[in-house]
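Retro notes (design track)

What went well: tokenization of the new backbones is finally stable.
What didn't: we kept losing track of which sequence belonged to which structure.
Fix going forward: every design gets posted as structure first, then sequence, in one message. First example under the new rule, 372 residues:
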């Protein structure tokens, strides 16, 4: 009878204590969340209930598995202890990462709620994301090393490898040069405020928004929903455009190539009417001027301002479309034309200037004007 009761008491007691600890922790966190609604920390910590229970159960069973008195436990005591130790280390690392993630997310949420500068919010978001990834990676490496050191053979190998640690470190450094470079580049981006999550950038001729920054790569979501992924070291080694740094306001330009007779003053009034009714214009400034001339056309530049890059693109497209439609409707002569004329001394052809079976040929001496 005792052989049956002892394992039931040991295992059942461990499970009962585990459930009791999880229930008590959840109740305390619920109460703390109700008393402090200004911070989401306590609600986020409730996600740690499962790893907490696994850690408590593994610790209890690790300390009391040899008290069950069963033949299996006695014959395989070392193996059971090894498995429970590995589970305890893994669950502890799991709990540590959940707690650190909750603290980081809570800190960011409180900062974002009380901050009215979007640029600073994006900067802090980038920093806390990379800090969270560094913490998770560090905890994972430490947990893996601790699990390996629980094996006696690995401890022996580790002792013998200390003598050659210098050579191994050099080889590893050379082999991981690119990875380490990206790692330090990621930290430099996070704390150097070079680029942040949510920034509008132009990289390699691609325009898009920074969507994700990790320790090794950066993902940019382009305007057509593609993802451009590149190593973070690219941003520390090569120039790129960051349209969100120093403010999101932008000035867009639209160029028109028109005939010399184009009504510039009327175009300027029409541009004012277009931007005045455009929801993408921020109301700061607009302008229209002749910026260049050629023997056949003039170059007219329209400048408009917007709140951000997206609105700048929209207002530029609207100005281009509505201005061309207005010119075509009200002043078609202003659109560029291609003048054609016969070459000097051209042969009028057989039949005295007639071709195609005696039909009159067109007068080649007349100049024709053709709209594009």
């Amino acid at each position: 009878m005792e052989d049956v009761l002892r394992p039931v008491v040991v295992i059942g007691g461990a499970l009962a204590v585990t459930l009791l600890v999880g229930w008590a922790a959840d109740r305390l966190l619920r109460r703390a969340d109700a008393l402090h609604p200004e911070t989401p920390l306590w609600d986020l910590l409730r996600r740690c209930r499962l790893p907490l229970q696994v850690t408590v159960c593994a610790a209890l069973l690790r300390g009391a598995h040899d008290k069950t008195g069963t033949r299996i436990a006695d014959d395989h005591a070392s193996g059971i202890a090894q498995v429970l130790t590995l589970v305890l280390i893994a669950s502890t690392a799991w709990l540590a990462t959940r707690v650190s993630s909750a603290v980081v997310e809570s800190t960011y949420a409180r900062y974002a709620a009380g901050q009215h500068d979007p640029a600073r919010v994006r900067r802090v978001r980038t920093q806390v994301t990379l800090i969270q990834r560094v913490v998770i990676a560090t905890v994972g490496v430490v947990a893996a090393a601790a699990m390996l050191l629980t094996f006696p053979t690995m401890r022996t190998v580790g002792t013998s490898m200390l003598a050659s640690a210098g050579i191994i470190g050099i080889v590893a450094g050379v082999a991981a040069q690119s990875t380490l470079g990206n790692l330090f580049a990621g930290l430099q981006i996070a704390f150097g405020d070079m680029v942040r999550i949510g920034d509008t950038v132009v990289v390699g001729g691609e325009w898009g928004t920074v969507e994700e920054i990790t320790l090794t790569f950066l993902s940019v979501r382009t305007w057509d929903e593609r993802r451009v992924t590149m190593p973070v070291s690219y941003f520390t080694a090569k120039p790129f455009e960051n349209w969100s740094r120093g403010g999101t306001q932008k000035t867009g330009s639209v160029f028109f190539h028109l005939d010399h007779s184009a009504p510039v003053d009327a175009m300027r009034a029409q541009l004012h009417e277009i931007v005045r009714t455009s929801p993408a214009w921020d109301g700061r400034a607009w302008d229209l001027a002749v910026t260049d001339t050629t023997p056949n056309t003039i170059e007219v530049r329209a400048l408009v301002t917007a709140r951000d890059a997206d609105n700048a693109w929209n207002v530029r497209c609207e100005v281009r479309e509505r201005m061309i439609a207005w010119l075509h409707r009200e002043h078609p002569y202003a659109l560029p034309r291609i003048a054609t004329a016969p070459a000097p001394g051209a042969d009028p052809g057989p039949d005295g200037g007639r071709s195609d079976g005696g039909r009159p040929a067109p007068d080649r001496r007349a100049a024709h004007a053709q709209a594009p």
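Added context from the reviewer: The mean pLDDT is 76.
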